[in-house]
């Protein structure tokens, strides 16, 4: 009888531990709800982000929650926030979180790829020339290569200007 109670307790604990991840996924799946044109409802996006942040506390789902939170930051910045200052703050938070999760899960290609994308969006808000001077373009290139995200890397080659000495790797033909 004791073994049954312990097993049931463990199963209940596992089910409850993943509730926040499931809640985040629910809001993620319904992120188009109440949207207008290409602008998402920010309250739904906030519910998604908050659920993923709570799920991060559970080590059994932390890696998956980190992936989803990075994607939620990307989604919020692209579809739920319209002013520059708020996007800059959001992508700075995403950049910091991406660095932490990349250090913790260096083999996870989804995290690496989403980190590179959010870093790129932060650089765009921060100022392209300033970000290039700080080496962000090279970091995005290296992360995209590591994640084997060739589409994103090709886009970087296409969009970034060739600047001798400062940014000499973009190549439109290589893209």
Quick tags:
175 residues; mainly alpha; 71% helix
- Kindly state the percentage of residues in helix: over 70%
Sequence stretches where pLDDT stays below 50 over 5 or more residues? 5-15
Task: Give the beta-strand count.
Answer: 0
Query: Which structural class is indicated by helix and strand composition?
Result: mainly alpha
Span from first to last CA? 64 Å
Tell me the number of helical segments per DSSP (H or I, 4 or more residues long).
Answer: 9
Q: Which percent range describes the beta-strand content?
A: under 5%
What composes the largest sheet?
none
Write the layout of secondary structure elements.
Layout: H1 2-17, H2 19-29, H3 42-55, H4 62-79, H5 84-104, H6 109-126, H7 128-133, H8 136-146, H9 150-159
Helix pairs in contact: 2-3, 2-4, 3-4, 4-5, 4-6, 5-6, 6-8, 8-9
Short description:
It is built from nine helices and no strands.
Descriptive overview:
The structure is a single chain. Helices cover 71% and strands 0% of the residues. It has 9 helices and no strands. Helix 4 packs antiparallel against helix 5, helix 6 packs antiparallel against helix 8 and helix 8 runs antiparallel to helix 9. It is globular. The relative contact order is 0.08. About 6% of the residues have low confidence.
